[in-house]
Amino acid sequence: MDATEGDAPVNPQERSSHTAFIDNNTLYVWGGYQVVAREDVMLPSDEIWLCDLDSGAWERREITGDIPPNLEGFCGSHVNGTLYIFAGCDPVGYTNQMFSVDLTGPCCSWKKMTDTKGTTPSPRNKHSCWVHRDRLIYFGGYGCKTIGEVRNTSSSSFVVEEMSWTTIGDTLFRCWGWNNEVNVFDTHTATWSMPETRGPAPGPRGCHASALLGNKGYISGGVETAELDLFCLDLETWTWTQFDISSSCSPLGRSMHTMTPISDHALFVYGGLGIDGNTLNDAWQFNTVKREWTKMTHPHKDKPRVCHTACLGNDDDVVVFGGSSNLCILMDSVAVLRAPSQHHCRDVIIFQTQPYSLFRLCEDFMGKKPELFGKRLNWLPSKLRSRVDKRVAFFSNTKPIFTA
Fold it and tell me: One Pfam family from the UniProt entry (predicted)?
């Protein structure tokens, strides 16, 4: 961990399009970009930020080794203490490289994975990943393929959007477009495979959201539809199912949003870029048993988010970090462009999705109002006193927004 001067607080930079996960009630944040002088600036790849969600304190950890290049549109996944980064766009162009770093030890070192088996997926970005039984299961994205790859790919699995020449490594690519491929990486054997799926698959897309519930992977959004669509893939039988839901009860279609599992049968959707071009601030729950959406009420309508992360924390809290509060899209007759924006965030928003235990309620009350207890806090057992001290620091330093 980096040392700081005195007791000065340490905080990560504002960022969007990063990756994040929670392990042992610690939020880990890596990568992403911010805007400086109206230009996108990728954040350092040789560091990862950790936030103790009990106290709200941030720490920076340095990572050495085969440091990944600056990446945009990559996909990050956490398995058994190891962070995997796959594909994205580096300064040269699209890539299909994979990097990993073991975060369980005191010293962390990146490893470029060059000894994988099987056929590596084609270069891409804006894809997503499910982690299931120590496998990384990637879906979709935008990228490039060779003429031969396109000829061997179903037209429903890869939609060619552009034809242009580029060379990545020793391979000449010509076709650019969106895909709905499912690619599996086994972390134990370092082997790639592509299962044959059945059923009504989602159309090719990127910038969508994904979540895992049990043995099923869910996909939503990332396409130009009036309402938010939803599909699930059975990761045992590789069978797709589409949810047919009344348009009057569905959220607005969107991309660059988040979807988080909050119980055995519920998904939590927050924010994103609506098909109307607005950055959204709405929150929804989807019940996979009843197959219905419920819109949640919350007090922070002034905090829209896009390109953020949302992780499941303790007590089924959804912990949202970073993103942009106002993503501006410029459109003309030729192209759709993202305008440089200064509205990146680094605050933590916590959604309460389930009733808290009496212990959690008491702990939080003492953390918010320690002055009511005075010296009586010294009467607490040392472990409990330590937890209360962390909650005092959390509420005094981070001032999070809890919603229910």
Answer: Kelch_KLHDC2_KLHL20_DRC7
* Domain positions in the chain: 359-403
What's the DSSP call for residue 97?
E
Q: What's the burial of 361, exposed, middle or buried (CB within 10 Å: 0-12/13-18/19+)?
A: exposed
Cβ atoms of residues 17 and 73 within 8 Å: yes
Burial category of 191 from C-beta neighbours within 10 Å (exposed 0-12, middle 13-18, buried 19 and up): middle
Strands 348-351 and 401-403: parallel
The Cα-based distances of 155 to 18, 149, 282 in angstroms read: 31, 11, 35
Q: Identify the band that residue 267 occupies on the pLDDT scale cut at 50, 70 and 90.
A: very high
Q: What is the pLDDT of residue 330?
A: 56
Say how far apart CA 253 and CA 228 lie, in whole Å. 4
Instruction: Quickly state the pLDDT bin for 5 (edges 50, 70, 90).
Output: very low
Q: What angle do helix axes 358-368 and 382-397 make, rounded to 10 degrees?
A: 60
**pLDDT by residue (tens digit) across 225-245?**
999 999 999 999 999 999 998
Q: How many residues does the chain have?
A: 404
Q: Which residue has the tokens 């870029």?
A: 273
